[in-house]
């Protein structure tokens, strides 16, 4: 452990983590992955990283972690495959799912597969640490700035647009919306 890490690491962090501090973080956003890995190391975790489903599955099979943070949307597939690989080898892993699209249906599937919580990206290290170390039965704190109704609608439209492989006509049909209206919404920035 470096001196900087030692300064940030406290005995209470160790108490919350337990004796097995292995953590696998799977995310294809390299800079985010490295920042989160460093932050989790300073909190006492022994971190391994993976930038793809294939790498995450391989590391899960080799040494299933006690803790995992898995992005749902990865360049080579779905993070749910990593969750399944972990669960096949270890049933006590505390898994947190990250999603950039606020996809409730996929998050529910992840919870059914054994994830203990899901966080919308970009999640900060404190949120991830709290979710990983939360005891069963503890309630998560409500977010200080929950998404507005406009933002939730915008996220839903973006999710459907991605599911339709960025086809505006198909997205408009599925949302029962006029194509031009959808194009105007897609051209605007995300609401706060």
- Helix-strand pattern: HHEHEHEEEHEHEHHHH
Main sheet characteristics: 5 strands, parallel
Percent range of helical residues: 40-55%
- The average pLDDT score comes to 81
Write the layout of secondary structure elements.
Elements (H helix, E strand, L loop, with lengths): L2 H6 L2 H7 L4 E5 L3 H13 L3 E5 L2 H10 L4 E5 L1 E2 L2 E2 L1 H10 L4 E6 L4 H10 L1 E6 L4 H9 L15 H15 L4 H8 L3 H9 L5
Parallel strand pairs: 1-2, 1-3, 3-6, 6-7
Antiparallel strand pairs: 4-5
Helix pairs in contact: 4-5, 8-9
Structure description:
- The protein is 51% helix and 16% strand.
- The chain has 192 residues and is an alpha/beta fold.
- The protein is elongated and about 55 Å long.
Short key terms for the protein model shown above:
192 residues; five-stranded parallel β-sheet; two-stranded antiparallel ribbon; 7 strands; disordered N terminus
Q: Can you summarize this structure?
A:
51% of the residues lie in helices and 16% in strands. It has 192 residues and is α/β, with parallel strands linked by helices.
